[in-house]
Write a structure and sequence with these properties.
Elements (H helix, E strand, L loop, with lengths): L21 H14 L8 H5 L1 E3 L32 E8 L18 H4 L7 E8 L9 E8 L4 H4 L15 H10 L1 E10 L2 E4 L7 E3 L4 E5 L18 E3 L4 E6 L5 E5 L16 H7 L9 H4 L18 E4 L9 E3 L11 E4 L4 E7 L3 E3 L1 E9 L15 E8 L4 E6 L16 H6 L1 H8 L4 E2 L1 E6 L6 E5 L23 E7 L8 E9 L10 E3 L11 E6 L5 E5 L2 H5 L4 E5 L10 E5 L5 E7 L5 E7 L28 E7 L8
Parallel strand pairs: 8-13
Antiparallel strand pairs: 1-25, 2-32, 3-4, 4-5, 5-6, 5-7, 8-9, 10-11, 11-12, 12-13, 14-15, 15-17, 16-20, 17-18, 18-19, 19-24, 21-22, 22-23, 23-24, 26-27, 27-28, 28-29, 30-31, 31-32
């Protein structure tokens, strides 16, 4: 997520514990030249197709398995797909979700209407088959996150820039609260076209006003109690939900990311000032909510921030089910939460903490999931172990347990219980000395090859002295992808190996850029963010930040993960100006890829009255509207080839 005034929410609260020792510096500098050579890819076939700027070309490689005509790099008011494909707008901000939702009126926004309509800034997309367990590809419950709001594009008269967020009225802030959260909609395909099923019994809007339960180690802890919730087990809403995932039993996992920006007041005066600082909670609030609602003012409700920054589990098949914040999975700026299965059936959930110099995590349940009894998995995510990753310079990874009483996680160091470890996960992880990474965002396992891919968006603050083999570029403007191979193919294993899959940037311009030698002038990318995989195990990478970092639109890129075309990225989709691409997901038969196009028009100087684009409606008076789109091949067939 980024802001249209050029600032970045990950600027606030970055991890201070990044300074290496002298011996580490010596080792890193000696090994840096090998970082992109010896650890770039896995196996001879993997490395054969790569080329580096200024170096000798590798052996010739065969073509990519992706055969679509690439979209040309550019940046304009609309989106672009390959010539043989078409994109359909499925649902937009303000479209009906609930049966009684009023028609969207951009000049008469109300909180009551927004609670019934599709929310703002769609991000993660999940597909849950209808009926549950169905193997067909034409009917799903679609779940969608609504990450944040941009008042300058939502309301007239506010202007442009982050500062305008502070000037909203109470009524406008109430609309923003309603526009956060998530949506559940029923979708169906008929005659090759997707549509939202009206009046679905599953339809649901979740907002910052929805009641949530708190479960796991932190439930009921003193630091979770507020005047509105003296028991510390009930909270209103979820905030800044970015990426997400699902469980094998069919529930929706949604990740609270940059929650810190919603809270105002003088955090330095509070007893938990150290923890606030580590999470980026300061006077520099991004929103004016603390002026209107006491719960967002830390001087009045000092524990309210502790109730955000969690993984939330929601049952899309039961619109009456209370969403649950699962505190056993830790509290940080969660970007995603994608699951894999250990060999013994335990559920493993991978997560990134989206901050410069922060960490990669995984959670392993204590028990296997029950395939026969869905209800038996209801509280499975409340019992397990959270781990943080250390990437060593010899290409190995170690997963370090965040367990109270083990190592430095003791009362003497400020952690009197497992609840303390989970509430202040970042501070606890710092003590274990994991590897500070270049903004870990999406972390997903490839269901075909079993490897785990870590999207590292960028980190222009990394100095030459702070490089390591997992983060080998100083002033990393374009990001890179790390590939993890769990030991013995077991996602519950506490060690494994890692390599670098690709490094972003433009070959010939950015010296660190590393791609397959056959990558075209339109195939390079910048600022990797989210990813997904098709049934062949090919990776699809969405970007966030390319307009600022590279002068091109954000987009979606496909690449093989094996064979001669491994790492050969090809541009499939370009977003309209100001927008990033989020939530890529394909139907099981690969016939449709759904994308969330977030914050179109969020450019410097763009306002409600004069936006940089009016995508997707292009009607006078209609502001840009974040939307979910469906992309298919003309005439049908699998995406990509």
């Amino acid at each position: 997520m980024r802001h249209h005034d050029g600032t970045d929410p990950e600027d606030i609260g970055s991890n201070p514990s990044t300074e290496p020792t002298v011996s580490e510096l010596i080792g890193r500098r000696l090994g840096r030249r090998d970082a992109l050579r010896g650890l770039l890819g896995a196996g001879a076939a993997a490395s054969a197709g790569y080329a580096s700027v200024g170096g000798a070309l590798a052996q010739p490689a065969g073509p990519s398995s992706l055969t679509f005509e690439e979209v040309k790099h550019g940046l304009d008011r609309t989106h672009h797909v390959p010539a043989s494909y078409e994109a359909q707008v499925l649902i937009r901000w303000g479209d009906p979700v609930m049966a009684d939702a009023p028609a969207f009126d951009p000049v008469k926004l109300t909180a009551a209407a927004q609670e019934r309509q599709f929310g703002y800034n769609c991000d993660f997309i999940g597909l849950h088959p209808l009926p549950a367990g169905n193997t067909a590809n034409d009917r799903f419950l679609m779940v969608v996150n609504h990450e944040y709001t941009d008042p300058g594009l939502m309301f007239a008269g506010l202007g442009s820039g982050r500062s305008v967020n502070l000037n909203v009225t109470k009524e406008q802030a109430e609309v923003e609260l309603a526009a956060h959260g998530g949506s559940v909609i029923e979708i169906a395909r008929e005659n090759g076209k997707w549509s939202v099923v009206p009046n679905s019994k599953y339809a649901r809007r979740i907002s910052a006003n929805t009641a949530f339960d708190i479960s796991g180690p932190a439930a009921g802890h003193d630091k979770m109690k507020t005047s509105a919730d003296p028991g510390g087990r009930r909270v209103l809403g979820m905030l800044n939900n970015c990426a997400g995932g699902e469980t094998p039993w069919g529930t929706w996992l949604t990740a609270e990311e940059n929650f810190n920006g919603y809270f105002g007041g003088d955090a330095d005066k509070m007893p938990d000032a150290k923890a606030y600082k580590r999470y980026g909670i300061s006077k520099a609030t991004w929103y004016g909510w603390s002026r209107h609602f006491d719960r967002f003012n830390v001087e009045k409700e000092p524990n309210e921030p502790n109730r955000f920054g969690w993984i939330v589990e929601i049952d899309p098949y039961d619109p009456g089910a209370t969403p649950i914040k699962r505190t056993a999975l830790g509290r940080f700026k969660h970007e995603g939460c994608h699951h894999s299965l250990a060999k013994d059936g335990r559920v493993v959930i991978y997560m990134g903490d989206d901050e410069r110099f922060d960490y990669v995590y995984k959670f392993v349940t204590a028990k296997p999931w029950n395939r026969q009894d869905r209800s038996a998995n209801r509280d499975l995510l409340d019992d397990g172990t959270l781990y943080v990753a250390r990437f060593t310079d010899d290409g190995k990874i170690a997963w370090l347990p965040l367990v109270h009483g083990q190592g430095p996680l003791t009362a003497e160091n400020g952690f009197a219980s497992q609840a303390d470890v989970m509430i202040n996960t970042r501070l606890a992880a710092d003590l274990l000395k994991p590897t500070p990474m270049d903004r870990p965002e999406d972390v997903e396992a490839n269901p075909v090859n079993g490897r785990v891919y870590v999207m590292l968006t960028n980190n222009t603050r990394r100095t030459e002295q702070q490089v390591n083999r997992a983060n080998p570029m100083a002033r990393n403007a374009h990001g890179h992808v790390v590939e993890i191979t769990p030991k013995d193919g077991d996602h519950a294993a506490l060690d494994g190996t890692w390599s670098i899959f690709l490094v972003g940037g433009k070959p010939g311009i950015d010296p660190a850029a590393r791609y397959h030698r056959a990558t075209t002038e339109n195939g390079w990318l910048s600022c990797v963010d989210n990813c997904t995989f098709d049934s062949k195990g090919r990776i699809w990478i969405a970007t966030d930040g390319a307009p600022t970092a590279a002068g091109i639109a954000d987009g979606l890129y496909g690449a093989d993960t094996a064979g001669y075309g491994r790492g050969l990225t090809r541009c499939f989709f370009q977003a309209p100006t100001g927008a990033e691409v989020c939530g890529p997901i394909l139907t099981p038969d690969d016939s449709t890829v759904f994308l969330a196009v977030q914050h179109p028009g969020e450019d410097a100087g763009s306002t409600f009255e004069k936006p940089s684009t009016r995508w997707p409606d292009f009607k006078d008076g209609m502001p840009p509207r974040p939307s979910v789109i469906a992309i298919t091949r003309k005439g049908g067939g699998p995406i990509g080839s």
